[in-house]
Amino acid sequence: MSATVVAVIGLVVFFLGYRFYARYLSDKVFNLDPNAEVPSHTMQDGVDYVPTNKFVLFGHHFATIAGAAPIVGPALGVIWGWVPAFLWVVIGSVVMGGVHDLSTMVLSIRSKGHSIGEIAKKIIGPKAFVAYMVIIFFVLILVLAVFLLVIAGLLIQYPQSVFPVFSLMVIAIGIGLLIYRTNIGLGPASAVGIVLMAVAIWWGANHPYPMPEKTVVGSAKQTWIFLLAIYSLVASVLPVWLLLQPRDYLESFKLYAGLALLFIGIAVTGPTIVAPAIRLDVPGAPPIWPFLFITIACGALSGFHSIVSSGTSPKQLDNERDATFVGYGAMIGEGALALGAILACTAGFKTSGEWMQHYASWSSAAGLGSKLTAFVDGSAYFISSVGVPLHIGKTFIALIIIAFAMTTLDSACRLGRYIVSEFGEQYDVPVLQNRYTGAAIMAAIAYILAIGTYQGKPAGLLLWPLFGATNQLLAALVFATITIYLVKRKRPAWLTGIPLVLVALTTVYAMIWNIKSYVSAGNWLLTVIGAIILLASFVLIYLSCGSYMRAKKES
User: Fold this and answer.
1) In Å, how far are 46, 61, 115, 143, 180 from 52, measured between CA atoms?
2) Could you give the CA distance from residue 302 to residue 404 in angstroms, rounded to a whole number?
3) Rg of the chain over CA atoms, in angstroms?
4) Closest by alpha carbon to 499, among 471, 478, 525, 528?
5) The total number of structural domains that make up the chain
6) In 3D, which of 199, 196, 15, 198 has the Cα closest to residue 90?
7) In which domain, by residue range, is 413 found?
8) pLDDT digits (tens, 9 = 90+) for 165-194
9) Which of 113, 162, 477, 488 gets the most CB atoms within 10 Å of its CB?
10) CATH number for the domain including 303?
């Protein structure tokens, strides 16, 4: 099958989804009003609540929800064949992921920018709050801990990325000051930032800065983990306009360029997909259903997005109509990135034999290095067809992965701070409502999980197998909350009701399957934590069903 044809089909479906389905949701389902009051204006504080240009906010939101996940998930998911991965990414982004993200954002901006857990308390009932928050807190802590480990490893593996990654922070602060504290305007400020970012990439590609093998903190990896934890804490308490927002906005241009080069390279080379269309006999792999749908999350549907769509982004929306462009549009952009990852990992190999060797078994493909190697090498090969030297292409793609992982790291710490603060408000604990306390709690727990070990393995990585099913369980619960909201307002609830049933059945089965495998392996830590999360999910499903029946009866 021609990779070019597959790319065109996917991009056309994305365009049609945004052009028609997103408009239907905005106009007919939610009746978005550009003149309605929004939290960024009514609660403006210059730190978290900041009215923001929709293009700047799109870049921030896109970078936050994307990270490395829409690359890593598809890079492993193609092990079951390129057709299931392609269909799930394309259809899932349009009818599930985009709906999930846009709906959550709308509910949040109509609830003072509160988290989905706080929103569920109002829609489902107070008992739903604790169960929701347990799941959200676990998801955020895992993301923080694992990304500390992953980014530290990548900075060691690609020392040429160190200068561009950290110089961008300084550039972003300067651009933030230009946009919000001068009259220079968004266009000129963006141009300055892009030029400086390009110079930083050029310099870094030729001047690697490896971390010494030993420092006062410990090994090179321990030192990077410590520095990244400190960075995530500081970044999460700074005004959002000063670092996160302009940094993510500038980072998005890097991804736009990478995606453009990738798809142009595919068009120029006209490669053939050498991976099998469907492959069910993968040695050591779990069954394709339900695990394809939790392996590929970001890029199709991800519960983590609901935390962002009811976290930093709704506090910055300038008006309700911008939610379509930012919420649904960013999800479509992430779907395009996942599509590029699928093609890079299935058409970036010269022969089917090379592909089968790389994806010989689940264990050979499941490692982070194996997944990233397939994507980096395949993407660099396509980009080289448009004149970019292969080694520069590999550096550029690796830098995109690291930079976007960084955006998820500091945003997750900020989102965790919001969750801790809402806990403090719920139970009247003033110290937890302090933003410095909340950020310190999140960064400290993540740091301990990243450097701590259990049974000889990093504690964060040991717990990571629980993330996939938990993440998609959260998406199902969000769909339940949105469905009840629509029923109460006599809006078409089938738009979220159908995804709710499909995702709930898939992820509950996946979690039960995982827990059974943990019991068989004698892994009681994962068994207990998985059981707690599953129990919290069942409580929320029970409460949601009761709330749905009451809402149906009232309407």
Assistant:
1) 11, 12, 19, 26, 10
2) 16
3) 22
4) 478
5) 1
6) 15
7) 3-554
8) 899 899 999 999 998 888 888 889 999 999
9) 477
10) 1.20.1740.10
